[in-house]
Amino acid sequence: MEDSGSGFRVSGFGSRVSGIGFAISGRVELLLDRRCRDRIPGTPNPKPQTLNPKPQTLFALLFLLVFTVSLLSAGCGGGNGVVTGQFKPINATAAVFWDRQTTETAELLRTIADEFNAKRPAALPIKVEHTGGYKEIFQKVTASIQAGALPSMAVAYQSMTAEYIQAGAVVPFDPFISDPVAGLSPADLEDFFPVVLETNKYPDAGNKMYSFPFCKSTLMLYFNRKVLADAGFDGPPKTWTEFLEQCRQVKAKTGKAAYPVSVDCSAIAGMIFSMGGEVMSGRQTLFDGPAAIKTFEILETLAKEKLAYQIPPGTYDDEMALSQGSAAFTMRSSSGRTSIALLMKDAQDDWGMTAIPQDDPAHPSTVLFGPNVCIFNTTPEQQRVAWEFIKFFTSPETSVRWALGTGYLPIRRSSANNPGIKKFWAEWPYNRAAFDCLPFAKSEPNLAGWQEVRTLVETAETEVLTGVKSAKDAATALKQKADAVLARQ
Amino acid sequence: MIRRLILYVFLLAGALFTTLPFVWMATTAFKSLTEAVSPTLVWWPAQWQWYNFVETFQAAPFGRYFFNSFLVGFVVTTGVVLTSLGAAYAFARLDFPGRALLFGIVLATMMIPFEVTLIPNYVLIRNLGWYNTYAALIVPWCASAFSIFLMRQAFMGLPSDYFDAAKVDGCGHLRFLIRIAAPLVKPAMVTVGLFAFLGSYNSLLWPLIVTSEDTMRVVQVGLTVFSGAEGVRLHLLMCASTIVILPTVALYFAAQRYFLESSLGSGIKG
Hints:
Radius of gyration of chain B: 23 Å
Number of strands of chain A: 18
CATH topology of the largest domain in chain A: D-Maltodextrin-Binding Protein, domain 2
Oligomer: heterodimer
Strand order of the largest sheet of chain A: 3-2-5-17-8
Order of helices and strands of chain B: HHHHHHHHHHHHHH
Largest sheet of chain A: 5 strands, mixed
Helix content of chain A: 40-55%
CATH superfamily of the largest domain in chain A: Periplasmic binding protein-like II
CATH architecture of the largest domain in chain A: 3-Layer(aba) Sandwich
Number of strands of chain B: 0
Largest sheet of chain B: none
Number of domains of chain B: 1
CATH class of the largest domain in chain A: Alpha Beta
Helix content of chain B: over 70%
CATH architecture of chain B: Orthogonal Bundle
Structural class of chain A: alpha/beta
Largest interface: A-B, 86 and 71 residues
Shape of chain B: globular
Shape of chain A: globular
Number of helices of chain B: 14
Structural class of chain B: mainly alpha
Strand content of chain B: under 5%
């Protein structure tokens, strides 16, 4: 889908022609020749143009050739082989940073990079390059690993970094952090919320820190105050029981399905955490545990009573429904605040955001979202400059500035004392909600194979929402499949 | 008469059905974000937001992107037409050992998905020192197996008497190709050119992978700036899309006659 042009050019026609070819065993040419001849009246029958007296043999050979080339090419492009040694920098005159930010946030990132460069004019400058979405960044990094040349750093989710670790393409942050001169002081480290650092430690790689927090957010419950008021509620639910009750009342009194569901593994993990559960214990998943089953049962109830419906994957229909007053709730990352604020710019008092409902509000929990940044195994100078920039970017002042400009969360505790943040929180009562969730947020596991597990979780969620499986059956099947995936790693 | 009327009603309905998404795209370009994302279908903006176009052009250097797309598209089209003419003529009219096998190999390349060759191609481009250059955007796409196939079919439709007569008059292969054969297969040539241009103009992943600077990027990359992880600015995306598809629509209308002629002749669908 992403590569509409090139993909269409090759795959589209390729598959069409191969389909014809295999269907009629190589006679396609003869048929097409005849059609072309028929177009010219009075054309004498030219010399027959056959591919081969034995078309089946030729196509067998062709199939073998294509198969071999495909295997070779796929082998070249896997990116899973262990590559040792240092990679060349993709740009020797700058420390390149591959990022995905667009529009205003991209501009802010570039401004921050320019300010960093201006402070040290003689040193290697940071150069931010927009490299598409996460998928494109992953593809480009994977290709660059094979080409032996990498940027200084790139944004990456933990699952992406886990792949880069296997290829020997990234370096751990631990030596940078502990460096007596350029590292972080114990007070600095203490200032970070523990979860944002913990999420960057990789158990499969000696529990070293192969990435560093960059854009962080938490799972939040967004609600339309007007719809809730119509249903007789003056505030959002605090527990899952209250959530179900509010959904029922919204349906009964307004006729609206209260909750459009964006199927997402992170949201399921967040719900499980909020039930007091975990998703992993050692290398075993806990998808058949009480917290996970309770999570799926809530979704099952919502679907059965038509209180919720699944939105098409990859769309933001839930945000739109919320902003149009046709839904009461949605659960999304706190970074979605800016998008919803834009949709509801004429009705800022009609919506709000809060922590997701909890099983026990006295012991809350939610899930941590957002990409990190990793440093590639290029020259020591490139690595050093990358680290210096990351240190600058995550400093208390810049972290706050980034948070205010983007909707992501400041990742340091001291941000709470920043005048800019205080002013921001005072502007709208819900602006502080996500920051208050950080102390109890948990991250998803950093294990190789988790990306595949994420897909299985989303499949299970869809099965429950569509009634294909009961909550218990979906949870049990998910546990078996996910454990099998992780056992293969 | 009534039959014809019914036919026209059906055709008109089909045409309208096909056109509606484009109409929605064009009108959404003038809507506010709230109208654009409205769950109920809004066909006409309450207030025409002309400023959307200003915002769109401010979001990315579309002027440069258009220049690059046209430049790359034009050179790729020229390259594909030239290589297809030469290769297809050879496969259709020249007798040489291994011709069928070689043609089979050319056809076989169409069966390898783009995704499979992406990484090897990228490595090659890096090793050639073409990263972030026009060469990376142009050279890999200057030959196309499908175009060779299409042109070969067109050449094979020409009566061999033409060549024999030209040969008697002292005409060699090159002159026959340029002066006689190429003009006779003009519809196929236009189709090949159209496909080449559209393929080049619409490509996203390859330009994104092999370039790093805004000065080298193309319009499709520009469209990605309106979609982020947090949401889509649908009104601006539709505004940019409306501008971006205009050249391709114009090109299609200009070449429509040849395109249909060639498609009908070669049995291509869709």
